[in-house]
Amino acid sequence: METKERERIKQNIEKHGCHLIMVMEDDYLPAFVHTIGLFEKYGHPELICFGLKKEVASEILNDAAEMIAEGQSFTPDQSYDDFLKEHPMRFLPADKSYYEFYFGYASRYYGHDDYPVLQMVWPDKASLFPWQAGFVPDLKFKQPLLDRNTDFMFYEERNVMAYTTKQVLEGAPILYVNHDDEDGAWQFHHSNNPDLKDAKAVALESITKLDPSVNKLHFLPYGGKAWRKTPQDRWEF
């Protein structure tokens, strides 16, 4: 992280209690906002909120920062009515497996990932949370739950159809991945020019079981492509 950027973050932490990182949504990925500095200044976990308009999420996080400055501490074992009118919010502890995808700025600022994070989770209009029966299905992937599903990080259901080849199913490494921009279909191949006669349709979860490293591509937007020379190499985009 450049010195000027680090200094700007430090100034915001000193003045406002935290610095906010805002990431806009696209046609596949949800928007999110997270803090930097709550842990440094107050010893409180950083906070992240998905799926709300950036203005709303920013206001909620700033309100939370003010409450933390006044001595409030948020925990995963209760609901809080302080943020959304007539709807409680809950907090979940984020698993570190997700840090590299959502907290890169915070990790660069701190120089490590040894800091806690709580995810602020909002309910639907019936005050149901994503893990409860009856939660609105269309909202499910607006806020991925960062305390679970580390074996399957994708924004789709585990049984959604994906495409591969018999060579991959027989043990060939996955070296090329495509997220189709027309129908959103995922493709996982050993070659960048697979033969259609070898195509196979499988559940997306079965691909993550064959090669858990493809979870690192769960954020690949529609039309995105990734490749690597060997399974030991980092994915390129």
TrEMBL record:
Q: What is this protein called?
A: DUF4262 domain-containing protein
